[in-house]
TrEMBL record, chains A, C:
Belongs to the 3-oxoacid CoA-transferase subunit B family. This is 3-oxoadipate CoA-transferase beta subunit. The lineage of its organism: Bacteria, Bacillati, Actinomycetota, Actinomycetes, Pseudonocardiales. Keywords: Transferase. NCBIfam families: pcaJ_scoB_fam. Its EC number is 2.8.3.6. Pfam families: CoA_trans. It comes from Actinophytocola algeriensis. It comes from the Bacteria. One of its GO terms (molecular function) is 3-oxoadipate CoA-transferase activity. InterPro entries: 3-oxoacid_CoA-transf_B (IPR012791), CoA_trans_fam_I (IPR004165), NagB/RpiA_transferase-like (IPR037171).
Automatic annotation (TrEMBL), chains B, D:
It is an enzyme of class 2 (transferase). Keywords: Transferase. Transmembrane segments: none annotated. Gene3D superfamilies: Glutaconate Coenzyme A-transferase (3.40.1080.10). One of its GO terms (molecular function) is 3-oxoadipate CoA-transferase activity. SUPFAM superfamilies: NagB/RpiA/CoA transferase-like. The keyword Transferase applies. PROSITE patterns: COA_TRANSF_1. Belongs to the 3-oxoacid CoA-transferase subunit A family. Its EC number is 2.8.3.6. This is 3-oxoadipate CoA-transferase alpha subunit. PANTHER family: ACETATE COA-TRANSFERASE SUBUNIT ALPHA (PTHR13707:SF60), KETOACID-COENZYME A TRANSFERASE (PTHR13707). It comes from Actinophytocola algeriensis.
Length: 214, 231, 214, 231
């Protein structure tokens, strides 16, 4: 495990995390941004980087959220928010859209998470609480479908419990599928060498290791 | 052969109690509300519904659920901000739920339409949704065996049909329509307009008429905006 | 086995067989006509019957053979003969085309055969001769893909050997897939009740039974 | 990201000895002759070719075979009236042949592109082409287990590309192009013309640019008429 190669004195906010993710997406990539926090990443992609957004409900070349009279309820993203199309967009049906994901054609997928394990297991679809209504959507397909799966999340729960864990306790979404974890306190690369701390924010690396039990 | 129907009621005639009904749409986009309303009037009950979601607000699929016509629903994302009808039925034990990853739902429907007996699928391996299912390692990767989902009836929404039943769709409202059309014994499409054979460019037909049994024009369909968000 | 319900004094020629097949195809059917002799059936379909022809190389609504300046080498049938399109035609890729067949969506498929067995096994792709180059094309998909598979063939080889046989000796194309056999000497329905002689042409039914060992 | 190449030679650069090359076309319709000619100049040898046929006449795929570059061919219908180049190589034991039912060829390519590990297929059951393969009875019907066909490279022909690599095709020349585009690590398309992003209606794109790595405009491609007939 090598040391962090960048650090800032302050913990990052959501926008700060989204900026880091956006900066790590290579120009020209095909990218799926999951529902919720990951959609913020779109705001920080350079317009000339040529990143093309996929939405699993059947579109490549998704544009920004629709405003006012742009709203068309036949043109929505996976979160069911009305969006726009960009030049060079295309529409396709659900089996083709998920074949695109599951066949490994997306370069990057950015997802939220309840927990990520040190070896890249992802838990982001179900809290497992009794009475909770299960709903998976495209989460499991996205988890296994992209060449790189990036997770964006706070590093700790509101109760202060780490969400980057030796082993997930929540129901799994996918096994060994996450390659990077972007959080308010640091950025982590997961893979064959275990957890590598790439950046720290508002915490010293030894303290971060202690907190996570690394 | 495709029949052009005069009304949505005629288009859903003959759907019987206990039928498995594939219902197009992703949330409200592509949801065939007029056909669902006709199915409600038709009276068929004890239905199994296969659809991405479990209804929004109080109209369309949600109204069918509220009327107690649905015994079981197979979907990827039942819980949405405006899925209160389903939520209440589920919590009170009055509806069965099978949650299926969205890509498996699409691929299982395609398999039904394509004559595939079963397929080894990369999604869901090692998760609770694969529990009890066969798995197999192929070229070093693990897969789960998934089976087709066949429908007795598919209710879908498209933009335009020609008189032979060829369909084109509109933007992301296309979603499950084309695969569901292939997976049911009886496929019914509601469209904005029905035009002459030859009016659609053969290069741009998305669903060939061979998959479409009945078409009905609903020139001013209900537009159900989402009351919340989900997936 | 019920008796033949129609008979003619003379043996049928190819056109005669094609006429019988065409007359048995319900109006509005989706039909695939195999390469060779079955293509003759198209000439006897009533124009107002609304029969729609499928060609497995990616088209519904195939029209007649192209003539003169209609010839377009991007618009061919499964036998690679230039054809035309009819109003309401559609194009699709090969996986979609074969999904259409294999999913059981075609009403009728008409094929030629080397042999058909009494219980509907079909042999029509390979003579099995040493040195013959095997080539199957779409034959096996067509054999299992249509709701009804009709075979058109001469009932006997040039050497006088029956081609409707207790069990095929040629390599099989599909198992128990043929529902009717149209030949120069008679029409046969195959199914749960064995071989039913529907028509005889140029031969008396008892003699036909003798010849075939029925 | 899709690269628009200046020449067919640039478009096939980097194809190496021993590669598995998916070649689009059904007979001559959709056969990417200019890309094949460039592959011939490129010099790669010991190739495995996956294509519906085994070449027509003496040009295109047949020329690649004649030059001894192909070790093995996977196809549904090698024998045609004008497949004399292949016939001679096969009869003299200088090329390996795997015959695959046409629908299995298409579905196995689709499976490769769609991440399917294997599938139970109704075609070929009980025939010599299923010998030695796993079978399974599902809901009373017998199936054969078939595996994906992955390509290192796909060479396909389309009508038009936009600068993002979105493709549309022409009539029955579409055939294997869309599935092969999804099944290879490197997909190369020759097209009649390359136009601006936004020039193609998003509803009619057949192959989205995500599947296309390189495009080259060949405005006047060779038209190889069949010398005979086959399937």
């Amino acid at each position: 495990m090598s040391g962090a190669n960048r650090r800032t004195p302050g913990r990052l906010d959501r926008a700060g995390i989204a900026k880091l993710v956006a900066a790590d997406i290579p120009p020209g990539s095909y990218v799926n941004l999951g529902i919720g926090q990951p959609t913020l990443v779109a705001d920080y992609l350079a317009p000339d980087a040529g990143v093309i957004l996929h939405t699993e409900n059947g579109m490549l070349g998704m544009g920004r959220a629709a405003q006012d009279d742009e709203v068309d309820h036949d043109l929505i993203n996976a979160g069911k928010v009305p969006v726009t199309e960009t030049p060079g967009a295309s529409y396709f049906h659900h089996a083709d859209s998920f074949a695109m994901m599951r066949g490994g054609h997306l370069d990057v997928c950015v997802l939220g998470a309840f927990q990520v394990s040190f070896d890249g297991d992802l838990a982001n679809w179900h809290t497992g609480k009794p009475g909770a209504i299960p709903a998976v959507g495209g989460a499991m397909d996205l988890a296994i479908g992209a060449k790189q799966v990036y997770v964006m999340m706070t590093l700790f729960t509101e109760a202060g419990v780490p969400k980057l864990v030796p082993s997930c306790t929540y129901p799994l979404t996918g096994l060994r599928c996450v390659s990077r974890v972007y959080t308010d306190y640091g950025v982590f690369a997961l893979g064959g060498n275990g957890v590598e701390i790439r950046e720290t924010h508002g915490i010293e690396e030894p303290d971060l290791r202690d907190e996570l039990g690394l | 052969m495709t029949t052009i129907c005069e009304s949505a009621d005629e288009a859903v005639a003959g759907v019987t109690d206990g039928a498995t009904v594939l219902v197009g749409g992703f949330g409200t986009a592509g949801q065939p509300v007029e056909l669902i309303d006709a199915l409600l009037r038709n009276g068929a009950t004890d239905l199994t519904i296969v659809s991405n979601n479990a209804g929004n607000g109080s109209h369309g699929l949600a109204a069918l659920l509220a009327a107690g016509r649905v015994r079981r629903i197979v979907c990827s994302f039942p819980r949405q901000k405006d899925s209160y009808v389903f939520d209440e039925l589920y919590r009170s034990g009055r509806i069965e739920l099978e949650v299926v990853p969205q890509g498996n739902l699409a691929e299982r429907l395609r398999a039904a339409g394509a004559g595939i007996g079963a397929f080894y699928c990369p999604t869901g391996v090692g998760t609770p949704l694969a529990e009890g299912k066969e798995t197999r390692t192929i070229d070093g990767r693990d897969y789960v065996l998934e089976f087709p989902i066949h429908g007795d009836v598919a209710l879908i929404k498209a933009r335009q049909a020609d008189a032979l039943g060829n369909l084109v769709y509109r933007k992301t409202a296309r979603n499950f329509g084309p695969v569901m059309a292939t997976a049911a014994k009886l496929t019914v499409a509601q469209v904005l307009s029905v035009t002459e054979p030859g009016s659609l460019d053969p290069e741009v037909v998305v669903t060939p008429g061979i998959f479409v049994d009945r078409v009905v024009a609903c020139p001013s369909p209900a537009v159900l905006a989402e009351e919340g968000a989900g997936a």
